[in-house]
Amino acid sequence: MKMQRRVLALATGAMLSLSSFTAISADNSLASLRARGDIRIANTQASPPWSFINDQNQPDGYDVAMAKEIAKRIGIPHITFVADTFKNFVEGLKTDKYDLVMNDLTPTPEREKQVDFSEPYGVEEFRIYVLDNNKDIHEQHDLAGKKVGATAGTTNESWSREHLTRSDILAYDNGGLVFNDLATGRIDAVISSYFGGERYRKANNLPIKAVGQPLTYQLSAAALPEGHSSLKAAIDEAIRGMIADGTVSKLSQHYIGPDYQMVDDIAKAKAEVK
Predict the structure, then answer these.
(1) What pLDDT does 260 receive?
(2) Residue 223: CB partners within 8 Å, gap ≥ 6?
(3) pLDDT of residue 212
(4) CA distance 253 to 90
(5) DSSP 3-state assignment of 132?
(6) Average model confidence (pLDDT) across the chain
(7) Are strands 189-193 and 147-151 parallel, antiparallel or unpaired?
(8) For 26-55, b where at least 16 C-beta lie within 10 A, e where not — what string?
């Protein structure tokens, strides 16, 4: 009887080990992309400084530059950039429309239930934007009863719906539309990243400004389908390497501003989340 129990235990252990090995080896996400030689990466191409179309009619921005460097470091020679909107990003990953999303995307609890996220490589503060001649909106409490715009599917929108319950929240497909409506007086305020708001303001000479203190700080990371562990591990290693060797600092200062300290602010935001 003891011998039978021992044989059964050994057999069970072997089956568990084989099962674990199969689960690990079944993920060939990175190997498949390397074999294909191309990775499909989604961004909006309409949310500067993170992603936009440059003067050569090509995708550009901080997230685009990060994507190119990550692809190179993980051994994938070509990227196909896919334009989409924030509200479609999670579903696009789940339906294999693309392999990765890199566009200032925050790992919210709701998103983390559906897709996986890499190590963070970005962080930003969110502010209230109003017209230059605004006289009655200065802080969050002043938005009660006001029409407030945000880009659909972003953390700007989800934060606004959660915290601005006395405001009329209007969702827009992209940042250009929401800031145009602010500039023309169709809405009273916009909740936006400071970087995005300043880029739209300067590029389009809009009569708008940021007011009040930052509403919140949010990290951004690459999103990928659940279970693609080998791809996630490779991306995480690449991001850690880019933080350590100064690449993240170099790219963020190029696209966001020479005084911006991306690495330090990522560390501060991660500490705040904990």
Answers:
(1) 84
(2) 89, 90, 93, 100, 101, 102, 105, 107, 111, 115, 116, 117, 118
(3) 93
(4) 29
(5) coil
(6) 89
(7) parallel
(8) ebebbeebbeeeebbbbbbbbbbbbbbeee
Residue ranges of domains in the chain: 29-123+220-273, 125-217
Name the residue among 222, 218, 220 with its Cα closest to residue 70: 222
Strand partners, 220: 122
Confidence of residue 273 (pLDDT cuts 50, 70, 90): low
pTM for this entry: 0.72
The answer to whether 29-123+220-273 and 125-217 have equal CATH topology is yes
pLDDT average, residue stretch 208-213: 94
Third-level CATH fold of 125-217: D-Maltodextrin-Binding Protein; domain 2 (3.40.190)
Cα 236 to Cα 224: distance, rounded to the nearest angstrom: 12
Could you tell me which CATH class the domain 29-123+220-273 is placed in? alpha beta
DSSP classification of residue 149: E
Q: What are phi and psi of 169, to 5 degrees?
A: -90, 125
Inter-CA distances, 257 with 102, 199, 212, 253, 262, Å: 20, 11, 21, 5, 10
- Give mean pLDDT, residues 238-249: 98
According to DSSP, residue 96 is labeled: T
In angstroms, the CA 179 to CA 132 distance is 13
Long-range contacts of residues 163-170, Cβ cutoff 8 Å, at least 24 apart: 163/215, 164/140, 164/191, 167/143
Mean predicted confidence (pLDDT) in 213-231 = 93
Q: Are 49 and 62 in contact (CB under 8 A)?
A: yes
Q: What pLDDT is recorded for position 247? A: 98
Structural contact between residues 196 and 50, judged by C-beta atoms closer than 8 angstroms: yes
